[in-house]
UniProtKB/TrEMBL annotation:
<dbReference type="Pfam" id="PF02775">
    <property type="entry name" value="TPP_enzyme_C"/>
</dbReference>
<keyword id="KW-0479">Metal-binding</keyword>
<feature type="domain" description="4Fe-4S ferredoxin-type">
    <location>
        <begin position="204"/>
        <end position="231"/>
    </location>
</feature>
<feature type="domain" description="4Fe-4S ferredoxin-type">
    <location>
        <begin position="232"/>
        <end position="261"/>
    </location>
</feature>
<dbReference type="InterPro" id="IPR017896">
    <property type="entry name" value="4Fe4S_Fe-S-bd"/>
</dbReference>
<dbReference type="GO" id="GO:0030976">
    <property type="term" value="F:thiamine pyrophosphate binding"/>
</dbReference>
<protein>
    <submittedName>
        <fullName>Indolepyruvate ferredoxin oxidoreductase subunit alpha</fullName>
    </submittedName>
</protein>
<dbReference type="Pfam" id="PF13237">
    <property type="entry name" value="Fer4_10"/>
</dbReference>
<keyword id="KW-0670">Pyruvate</keyword>
<dbReference type="InterPro" id="IPR029061">
    <property type="entry name" value="THDP-binding"/>
</dbReference>
<dbReference type="InterPro" id="IPR045025">
    <property type="entry name" value="HACL1-like"/>
</dbReference>
<dbReference type="GO" id="GO:0003824">
    <property type="term" value="F:catalytic activity"/>
</dbReference>
<dbReference type="InterPro" id="IPR011766">
    <property type="entry name" value="TPP_enzyme_TPP-bd"/>
</dbReference>
<dbReference type="GO" id="GO:0046872">
    <property type="term" value="F:metal ion binding"/>
</dbReference>
Amino acid sequence: SRPAPSPSAGEEMPAIPGRPPVLCPGCPHRGIFYVLHKLKLLVTGDIGCYTLGGLPPLEGMDTCVCMGASIGMAHGCELADPSLAERTVGVIGDSTFFHSGLTGLLNMVYNNGRGTVIILDNRTTAMTGHQDHPGTGKTLMGRDAPAINLEALVRALGVRRVQVVDPLDVARLTAVIKEELAAPEPSVIIARRPCALLQKERRPAVAVDAELCTGCRACLKLSCPAISVREQKAAVDAITCTGCGLCVQVCKFGALQEGGRQNG
């Protein structure tokens, strides 16, 4: 058959379906905002790729003003209503923290705050093109530089409660956030996993067992571009899936399986 003729000049083109920007497949930030949304917390956000965590369906961020604002706003919420300290977290990226988060955290400690701050440490300045920062051990010119240790830096600012977690480990991440929110002093959670675009090796794509899938669409709440629905069942694009396993943890029916063979 002959190809369809191209639209002539002046002819109206069909509209492109709207699609909001989303976090990349395998992005470590996705686990953080999924858990924050599930816990129904007040989340003061910041500037970076992770700002996308405020969009549906993740909806895990309530404020975003400017670089470095997250920690000060979390502390401000506590000052306005002390009871908010038990359900408010400030979220800031590693690069943004080095850039403009230190003073906010120091202010929280100095003024006897008890807030919880989550530093999203993906080992780069991802949003603007993977530039280095003081924590990577390289200058912007690619020369070797001292790699500033985030844990040591946070403790030097007076924070005694510091925990490092894998943001794609939903169970432990949830437990740590609950634990630190209950603490009567400032705390910092460092959610550490490299940006998905920096990973040199990819794990096998997640497979779907169609017989076990109930079509509940819980996996779609992760806002992962690799997951869709076909014939009322979950489907995973093996090309874009990084095998991070987050969706496997979310599925309650065992229909999403790591490294398995596609069934159905």
